[in-house]
From TrEMBL:
Family of this protein: Belongs to the peptidase C1 family.
UniProt xrefs under PANTHER family: CYSTEINE PROTEASE FAMILY C1-RELATED (PTHR12411)
Protein name per the record: Uncharacterized protein
Residue ranges of domain Cathepsin propeptide inhibitor in the record: 43-99
Domain of life: Eukaryota
Family matches, as Pfam families: Inhibitor_I29, Peptidase_C1
C-alpha cells in the first residue's frame, strides 16, 4: 500500500530533475578563457554546436566579439547577488546592436500615446482577478500556448507576438490550440517586413482577412516560415480561416492591469531588449539591464513568484527553444517603474474574439 505514493514521488522527482537538466547551457570554464588558444578552441566548439558559419575575414572580428561576450558572461555568472544567469547561445559572436538589427523588429507606433477606451480593469477576466487572483497563472498549463518558434535572421518579432496572442485567444474561445502562420502575417500584412513592423497594426490583417494554420500544423497549410517576406499566398476560401473580432490597447504602464489581462488571455507586448544581458539570458528572473528603446515584441503567457517571493512575468520569445528557459524568459514583476521591467507593462495589446465567456466555466 505504501509503495504506490512513493513510486509516484520518485517519478516526479525524476521528472523534475530531468526538466532542470534540459536547460543546459554551453559550458564555459576559467580554463577556456585562460589563453588566446583556449579561447579560439572554445569559439570553434561553439560554432560547431550552433552551426554558425563565418568566412575568414568575418571570423576575426566575430572572434573578438565572442571573446568579450564570453568573458563578460563568465564574470557575470560568478556574481552572488543576482537573480538570473547568462549563457553562451547562438547569438554570442554578435554585438548587441548587430543582434538587435537582425533579430527583433518592433517599430514604434504612430499613435503610441493614444489611449483606447477599452479598460481591461472593467472586463471580466477569465480567471478570478482582484483579491481572488491566483498567485501564479501559466497559460501553457491550460492549452493556450503553442511551441516556441524561431523568427530567424528577420525583424519579424511583431508577427510572432501577434500570432502568439491570437493562438492564445483562439484556444481559449474554441478549446482548440492551433499553430498559426507567422509567414502568412509577414507575407500578407502591410504592417511590416523583415526590417520591422508595427505590432498593433498587424492585428488588422487578422480582423479583416484572417490567418490560417502554419505548415507545421495539422493538416499542413500555409508554407513554412522562411524568415523572408514572400508573395502573399493566403486563400480566404480554404478553411480554416481564423479571424479576430477586434483589437485593444490595454491600460498603459499598469502592472496590475497587465496581470488581469494575463488572467484573461496571453498578451502581446513590446519591450526594450537591446542589452547583452537580455540577449544572453539563460535562466532565472531577469531584472535588467534593458535596452534604451522599445525594439522587440513578445507574448506574456503567465506570471508567478519564486520560493523567495520574487514576482515574475512568464514571457514567450521567438528566438528558438535553445534561448533562455526553453525559449522563455521570466522577467521581474511589480517593480517601482510603472512601465514594468524593460517596459513590459507599457504597451499591452489584446486581440478580441467572440463569443465572449463561452468557455469561462472551464477555467474556474
Ligand atoms: C531551433 O534551432 C535548431 C538548430 O538550429 C533548429 O534545428 C530548430 O528547428 C529551431 N527551432 C525552431 C522552432 O525553429
Ligand atoms: C486583406 O486582403 C486584401 C487582398 O489581398 C489586401 O488588399 C488587404 O490589404 C488585406 N487587409 C489587410 C488589413 O492587410
Amino acid at each position: 500500500m505504501m509503495k504506490k505514493p512513493l513510486a509516484w514521488l520518485q517519478l516526479s522527482v525524476l521528472v523534475a530533475a530531468m526538466t532542470v537538466a534540459a536547460v543546459h547551457s554551453f559550458p564555459l570554464t576559467d580554463k577556456d578563457l585562460e589563453s588566446e588558444e583556449n579561447m579560439w578552441n572554445l569559439y570553434e566548439r561553439w560554432r560547431a554546436v550552433y552551426t554558425v558559419s563565418r568566412d575568414l575575414a568575418e571570423k576575426k572580428s566575430k572572434f573578438e566579439v565572442f571573446k568579450a561576450n564570453a568573458r563578460y558572461i563568465h564574470e557575470f555568472n560568478k556574481k552572488k547577488d543576482v537573480t538570473y544567469k547568462l549563457g553562451l547561445n547562438k547569438f554570442s559572436d554578435m554585438t548587441s546592436d548587430e543582434f538587435t538589427a537582425k533579430y527583433t523588429g518592433a517599430l514604434p507606433e504612430a499613435d503610441d500615446d493614444v489611449v483606447d477606451s477599452f479598460n481591461i480593469l472593467s472586463t471580466q477576466p477569465l480567471v478570478h482577478g482582484g483579491e481572488d487572483a491566483p498567485l501564479a497563472w501559466d497559460w501553457r498549463d491550460h492549452g493556450a500556448v503553442t511551441r516556441v518558434k524561431d523568427q530567424g535572421k528577420c525583424g519579424s518579432c511583431w508577427a510572432f507576438s501577434v500570432i502568439g496572442s491570437v493562438e492564445g485567444i483562439n484556444a481559449i474561445r474554441t478549446g482548440n490550440l492551433l499553430t498559426l502562420s507567422e509567414q502568412q502575417v509577414l507575407d500578407c500584412s502591410s504592417a511590416g517586413d523583415c526590417n520591422g513592423g508595427v505590432t498593433f497594426d498587424a492585428f488588422d490583417l487578422i480582423i479583416q482577412n484572417g490567418t490560417t494554420l502554419d505548415q507545421n500544423g495539422s493538416p499542413p497549410y500555409y508554407p513554412a516560415y522562411v524568415a523572408r517576406k514572400e508573395q502573399c499566398r493566403f486563400d480566404p476560401n480554404k478553411p480554416p480561416v481564423i479571424k479576430i473580432d477586434g483589437k485593444h490597447r490595454g491600460n498603459k504602464a499598469d502592472e496590475q492591469a497587465l496581470k488581469l489581462g494575463v488572467l484573461t488571455q496571453p498578451v502581446s507586448v513590446r519591450i526594450k531588449s537591446n542589452s547583452l544581458e537580455f540577449h544572453h539570458y539563460h535562466e532565472g528572473v531577469f531584472d535588467g539591464p534593458c535596452g534604451p528603446q522599445f525594439d522587440h515584441a513578445v507574448v506574456v503567457v503567465g506570471y508567478g513568484e519564486t520560493q523567495d517571493g520574487v514576482h515574475y512575468w512568464i514571457v514567450k520569445n521567438s528566438w528558438n527553444e535553445s534561448w533562455g528557459e526553453r525559449g522563455y524568459i521570466r522577467m521581474l514583476r511589480d517593480i517601482e517603474d510603472k512601465g514594468g521591467m524593460c517596459g513590459i507593462a507599457t504597451y499591452p495589446m489584446y486581440p478580441d474574439m467572440n463569443p465572449p465567456a463561452a468557455t469561462f466555466a472551464a477555467y474556474h
